[in-house]
Amino acid sequence: MTRSKPIRGLAPCTLNIASLDGDGVGVGRIDGKVTFVAGALPGERVTAQVYEGTARYDRARLLEVQHASAQRVTPRCPHAGVCGGCSLQHLEASAQLAVKQRHLEEQLWQIGKVRPERILPPIAGPSYGYRRKARLSVRVPATRGVLVGFREHHSSYVAEMESCAVLDPRVGEHILDLRALIARLHNPRCIPQIEVACSDDVAALVIRHLEALTPADEELLALFGRTHGLQIWLQSAGPDSLRCISESDPAPLHYELPEYGLRLAFTPLVFTQVNASINPVLIRRAIALLDPQPGEHIADLFCGLGNFTLPIARAGAKVLGIEGERRLTALASANATANGLAAHTEFRCADLTQESLDEVLAGHPVRKLLIDPPRSGALEILKGIGPNIQRLVYVSCNPDTLARDANFLVQQLGFRLRSAGIVNMFPHTAHVESVALFER
Question: Which residues are part of the catalytic machinery?
Answer without folding.
Answer: 397
